[in-house]
Design a protein that fits this description.
Elements (H helix, E strand, L loop, with lengths): L2 E4 L5 H11 L9 H4 L8 E2 L2 E5 L2 E6 L2 E2 L4 E4 L9 E2 L6 H15 L4 E5 L11 H8 L4 E11 L12 H10 L5 E4 L3 H16 L9 H11 L3 E8 L2 E11 L4 E9 L8 H15 L4 E3 L4 E2 L4 E2 L1 H8 L4 E9 L1
Parallel strand pairs: 6-8, 13-14
Antiparallel strand pairs: 1-3, 2-5, 3-4, 4-7, 5-6, 8-17, 9-14, 9-17, 10-11, 11-12, 12-13, 15-16
Helix pairs in contact: 3-4, 5-8
């Protein structure tokens, strides 16, 4: 009933149109325009779609690992399956996922990182239920987001400590603005590397990656920063999901030698206020877990909760 449509570069525009306009849970993170920023050779692409009568029903952006595992997608926070609006019902969804599972049976393991509810146009409950009852095991990482309300100052949702820290920052004539020059970006990335190194990690993206993503994503990606005169204080990289009213805080990059006030608190309050003004309803903070969700960084999670953040989960299914 369904035809397997393996990925090839000439399908880029068709797949991207499906993700952006025909799916219930597609975001720019599953488009080829985003995924193709990864250089050739970084992954072995194994993406495919199922189509019926020439109409795409579901799309699995994914890679094949050296261990013959299929991961949807190793180069993106969220992968697949990305499901057509016309096929997102109880009968059709199970039918097409059963068909997809036959194709995926060639792999030793399948890992599906589905789009969370706060980024989806439709609630993912039906997708989650169907995957679980097709033999996939459910695994979660703890994330959170701050709900935003028109006419409500996000500062009022913060705890007393954060409110005090922000009030102290208002004694200084700093500016909140976009990163602009190449030198600005180099400064941002320098402090991002220092911040990650404290936790024995590195940024997921190189500086060249960030410049490439800016070119590719345009209105879906932006960089904000705080400056005291000519001095860089803090920066933030944001992914924008206007279709579901969500802004995601991808990176925070503070100059930790700056001690006149608390820069990350000031940075986040300005970002939250800007998001409200622009009509966004959710500010996503990302996961606070490590090792596939097995370890919760409680200090990091409490920091986010202090900005009025509520719990959410990033879910992956494995078989």
């Amino acid at each position: 009933m369904y035809e397997i449509l393996p990925y090839s570069p000439e399908l880029d525009q068709r797949f991207d149109h499906f993700v952006n306009h025909e799916s219930v849970n597609g975001t720019f993170l599953q488009t080829r325009r985003f995924l193709n920023y990864h250089p050739a050779g970084r992954f072995t692409d194994a993406s495919f779609a199922l189509q019926k009568s020439g109409i795409i029903a579901v799309y699995f952006p994914g890679v094949k690992t050296a261990n013959n595992e299929f991961i949807s997608h190793q180069g993106s926070t969220f992968g697949g399956p990305i499901v057509s609006k016309a096929f997102y019902n109880g009968t059709k969804l199970r039918e097409l996922l059963e068909e997809a599972s036959q194709h995926l049976s060639q792999y030793s393991k399948v890992i599906l990182k589905i789009t969370p509810a706060i980024f989806s146009k439709e609630n993912p409950d039906l997708l989650e239920y169907t995957l679980e009852h097709l033999g996939y095991s459910r695994h979660t990482e703890l994330s959170n987001y701050t709900p935003l309300y028109k006419g409500t100052d996000p500062l009022s949702q913060c705890d007393a400590k954060h409110r005090k820290q922000f009030q102290e920052s208002e004694n200084f004539a700093y500016t909140y603005r976009e990163l602009e020059s190449d030198q600005d970006f180099e400064t941002f990335y320098h402090f991002l590397e220092l911040s990650k190194a404290k936790h024995q990690t590195k940024p997921v993206h190189t500086l060249a990656d960030l410049h490439d993503l800016r070119r590719r994503l345009k209105k879906k990606l932006r960089f904000k920063s705080l400056w005291l005169g000519e001095r860089y204080i803090c920066g933030m990289m944001q992914f924008l999901f206007p279709e579901t009213g969500t802004i995601h805080d991808q990176y925070i990059s503070p100059d930790e030698t700056f001690t006149d006030f608390h820069p990350t608190t000031a940075m986040h309050i300005h970002a939250l206020r800007e998001a409200v003004q622009e009509g966004f309803s959710k500010f996503s903070w990302g996961i606070s877990t490590e090792n596939g969700g097995n370890y919760l960084n409680e200090n990091l999670y409490r920091f986010k909760e202090a900005f009025g953040a509520k719990p959410s989960v990033n879910v992956r299914y494995e078989r």
